[in-house]
Specification:
The C terminus is likely disordered. The protein has 14 helices and no strands. The longest helix is centred in the N-terminal third of the chain and has 29 residues. The protein is globular and about 60 Å long. It is an all-alpha fold. It has one domain.
Length: about 300
Amino acid sequence: MAGCLWGTGFYFGKLALREMSVGHMVLYRFLFATLGMMPIFLTGLKRRRRSQETPVWTGRDLGTLLLSAALGIPIQFLLQFEGLARTTVSHASLMVGTMPVLLALGATIFAGERLDWIGWLALGGSTIGAALIVLGGHETGKPGVTPSFAGDMLVVASLVIALGWILMNKSLMVVHGPLEVTAYGILAGTIMLTIWVVAADGPPPVAKVSWTAWLALAASGILCTATTTLLWNWGIHHVPASRAGVFLNIEPALGSWLGVQFLGDELGPFAWIGGGLILAAAITLTVRGHDFDPEVLLE
């Protein structure tokens, strides 16, 4: 369910971007996400007041949380959706397919794990796949539906930043609960995002936003952000992490399909081959699950 809902994120984002700037769209998404996470946040506060065994947030923990929130919300999402504004939903979604491979690379660099020759082959295949998707971009016959190198690369850059976000969150989850870290992180990141967007773009529009855009924004925040986070954190504790990692690949597959079916996107032959390479690499790494522990990074 988390993978399916994540897969609709770019589609809903593209609908909202028709009526507002990237900053305002991302801000509304996280305002709705904060609303969706508020019950978890309030429940955590009540539990903390009642329990004397709840871990204390140290100054170092708070610093990590704030840095993680800054990377994971305003920086990552503004980059990602700026990329989406410059490319198609299908291209952006397929680029997200590189995330499991980036996680494997992150485990190798930062967690001291080793990637064997199959892992490196998958990493190389994913990189070639991303290049083919960029080369496979072409006009679709509809205005504003043109993939671009700059847009695709901004999405990839946001994924690299997301890797740092995941690693820092995991370090916090060693001591603090995943739901508590998630709720506090979204709340802190949304506050930072609000300050940045209002200063840069002014107050977000209200009166001129259509019902279609409002529904897309609410779905992006409540379903594609708050709900998916809760579903993923719950699921990762009930199935083997190596099996759970495979479901990340639903996102690029479903996202690219939505772009083709409903937004007029077209994928050239190079893009189809590139998407296949990315998904094959991601599935290879997550199904094997022997050379690194995805739970260290994906929880």
